[in-house]
Hints:
Blueprint: E1 2-5, H1 14-18, E2 24-26, E3 29-31, H2 40-49, E4 55-58
Antiparallel strand pairs: 1-4, 2-3
Amino acid sequence: xxxxxxxxxxxxxxxxxxxxxxxxxxxxxxxxxxxxxxxxxxxxxxxxxxxxxxxxxxx
Length: 59
């Protein structure tokens, strides 16, 4: 699985706080990445909590 942060990120940091194993900040916006199997639930929680709904989780 992979987390993708699309254009429109406001850099709130919620996803990084919920799932730092997958998300990290670069130049004020979040970047996603590969999701380890033990982090799938946290990555989905981060995506669902994104205030601007710009995170997608893909297989």
